[in-house]
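Section: Multi-chain targets

For targets with more than one molecule, the full set of components is provided together so that the structure can be written out for the assembly as a whole rather than chain by chain. Components appear in the order listed by the source. The example entry contains two components.
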Amino acid sequence: MNFSLIWPEVLIAALGFIILTVDLVLPRSQERRRNVVTGSIAAAGMLAILVFSIFYLRGRVGVLGADLYLADRFALAFKFMFLGAGIAVVLMSIEYVGSRIRHPGEYYALLVFSVLGAVLLAGAGDLLVAYISLELLSFSLYILVAMSRGDRRSAEASTKYILLGALSSALMLYGISMLYGPSGTTSFRGLAGFLFYNFSPTVAVGFALFVAGLGFKLSVVPFHLWAPDVYEGAPTPVTAHISVLSKAAAFALALRFFIEAGSPTHERWALALAVLAALTMAVGTLTALPQRNIKRLMAYSSIAQVGFVLMGIVANTPLATDAVLLHLAGYAFTNLAAFMAIIALEHRTGNEEIAGFAGLAARAPFAAMVLSAALFSLAGLPFFAGFVTKFYLFTATADAGYIWLVVVAVLGSLISLYYYIMVMKQMYMGTAADGKPLAVSRLTFATLLLLFAGIVAIGIYPAPFAEALESATAVFAPFAGR
Amino acid sequence: MLTTIVFLPIAAAILVLIAGRDARVARAIAVIAVIAELALTGILFASFDRQAAGFQFVERAPWIPAFDINYHLGVDGLNAPLVLLNGILGVAAVLVSWRITHRAREYFAWLLVLQSAVFGVFVSLDLILFFVFWELELIPMFLLISIWGTGRREYSAMKFLLYTLFGSAFMFAAIIVLYFSFPAGERTFDITALASRDLSALLIPTALVFGGFLVAFAVKLPLFPVHTWLPDAHTDAPTAVSVMLAGVLLKMGGYGLIRINAGLFPNEMARFALPIAVLAVIGVLYGAFIVMRQSDLKRMVAYSSVSHMGYVGLGLASLGASGAALTPVGLQGAALQLFTHGTITGLLFVAVGLIYERAHTRHIPDMGGLMGRVPLIGIGFMLAGLASLGLPSTSGFIAEILVFLGTFPVFGWITGAAAFGVVLAAGYILWAAQRTLFGPRPARWDHLRDASAVDVAAMAVLIVPILAVGLYPRLLTDVFSVGLVPIISRFG
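Its structure, encoded as tokens over all components, is:
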């Protein structure tokens, strides 16, 4: 096996252990310093690995084992996305962790391990590798969710997350065993041919159970019920992390599974998945309407976004796959910007209610502007990433013949504009009880600016992004029916 | 050239945000930007070749190659005057905002973004690009009305937003259907390419696609019965925004009707000409009657807009004619009305805004004899009013007479009914002038100060085109003809 292909993964794992060790060495009493040091190591380490991967992995692609682990351009694209998102999450954590999380070293180490889980997931070409990577990601998140100091909601959210997560893992594992039993293989590519000739009821149930387990991780309706509580209870940077990184990682797995293993049997699962997508969009959008807590609102909004992305998987054309990747990239920038701004505002006011955002535009104009841009982008308004990426996604889905699904999506987008505007209305038209300006640290400002630039860049000129991602999805060219 | 025109205001807006902590700096940047825009649009208009058909100053670059979406800009005889109009109104809008101090930095930035968006709508030749700019305009408008407006400003801003979004959802659906109606490889969003295609067999009946666009543009124009957002938005908007709203935003609707509804769907346009004409005439008369009983000066002007934009719909409907009755006159009138109404109503709103700024009321019965105290504003108001009622030698006369001449052979009595709107206009304008400017003056108005030099400049920018076009209409009609001939050649 050519282990030189997984140097970045090895380095990420090493980074996690380095952080744990440094945290042990630093004296317990200096909590502030431990936070800054371990946080900086996490951010700088991931940045270094990102830069290293860009140079090291150029032209280096290959497979480890018999389809066990695929170090291809698709995995590479996600690797960059996860490392970038991980850096952003660390940056938005540093201020937050200082006052609201007790164990900075463990916090950053777990963040790094979850990034590792996500990276491995994007390369998984085998059901078991996928399962193990997913568990690495999930276990890191279970603990991260519980880390909020002195907030009972955090512990409650974590408990809920663990219970439902364990259930979904069990479902997934059961599904895997039912697929493995008759087929004798766990590799996606091996399954593809088997599924095509032997789609027996047992296999169908196994397939459905695996998808259900995946649905939990993605918060697809009706497996979404954990999401709002976990989003609300988790420390806000962890919420951002879950909403971007774990979603994108699960989608990386879903894309690869449905394309590599599912393409030949596309017509057998497409309709069921389309119904799930429509339900997810509808339920996410409609239940977001009455929300008063910004984090719950973001939870439902991200459920709706999952529905959009599922459309691209249902369509299963090269164009749709490109669209999914582009949408995930745009969504990563958008949601990270939104959460960064939410943290900047919420952390200082200590208020997560949307009503508490009243008058923030006057107090922190830049953060309010970035949050507005991010919300407009989520709604899919032109000039922001969301418009272009949704346009790709909707057009590709319509192109594949699922016009009705696109109609649901367009209606959902229109309705979603309402609740996004309600947040903006509070910020710009509400009056704050306390009119003092909120100071935004330079680090926050710079990160916000970078994320904002990403949203606008994809929104105005997506061609370079789209081309880069096209080369990533080109790995799926050989699969049947495409 | 066009790219500069479209994006210069946005660039200036960013500069305002960065450097405009001081309100005077923000204002200075805004003034320089809009004057530069006026100069650029003036140069564009002057160097526009009035003999050449087709698009000029074309710029084209791939934007989203996966769907053949291009950054495609160009002007022909139809939109060149509207670009100039936007240049003119931008100057008036900034000058009339001279004394804004509340969050001035954001105010001028949004005003400039608004101007950019409108430019973008006028010059885009790709449907997606067009749609992007169409939506972009919503954000500044919504914020400008809801933050710097008066009265029930949040309600009005939201109403404006919902109406426009409602309309643009239909437009977007229509755009997508147009795209998918062709086999892969022939799909396009290009307006010029679509204009030469046969659009009779689409995925859904062509009439529905036509209707999708019609709804979006009718809301914007506004055409009866989807006009109800306009009086609220106008009344509660700050003066400069009313100027931009009446001056150019409504024109986006008229422009869309001519460019897309008439330009792409001649058969449907001819089929639905009569219903459009009827709605337009109802708008003309209904608007005029409502004006009569308004006591709020700004609301009055707002409803007069509903009435006057009805003429645009009527002129457009003249395309339903066949045989000898099919002439470009009515459509020319409609296009010219877009320009003239922009300047005239812009001026009315400037004058009303200046009065309100001084008197802090718009309640007509409270006023009287203001001419003696604020003669300059009074002159501006009277000029705009006379042009609005269609006095010969002003541009309003030319546009309306063209509409009537063009549509009378087609619709007969419907045009006759619409012409009654002119009589009503004379009535309400003169009556309002009499109640506000003339007659006995209550003592409380004795201390009003007349227009400052800046205010006069704001009015002069608008008066010049009103008189110039009124006295020498070929200045515009020649240009419009060049643009309208290709459209009308597909009818009949």
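The interface with chain A takes residues 62-67, 103, 106, 128, 131-133, 135-136, 138-139, 143, 146-147, 154, 161, 165, 169, 172-173, 176, 179-180, 184 of chain B (CB under 8 Å).
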